[in-house]
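Form 7-S
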Amino acid sequence: MKKTNFVVIFWLILAIGSFIIIYMNLRNFLEDISYLVISDRDYMSRRELLRDLITSVPMSLIFGGVFYISVKRGMKEYQK
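Output:
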């Protein structure tokens, strides 16, 4: 296997992993927003929901950036 193939595979596997993490964080984000809009007292308090939003939004942005960078670099290496 050539070195460039290994690098391309590394970047694309990193992209797949970060996409899965984005998906899970987006699911938590949308679930928290839905409980803020349609309140259910048994699930979580408003403070816990806001705390969960504060953790999920930056994580989604960070891994979104990682996903973009890894796909961009993987494709750049593939085209060489």
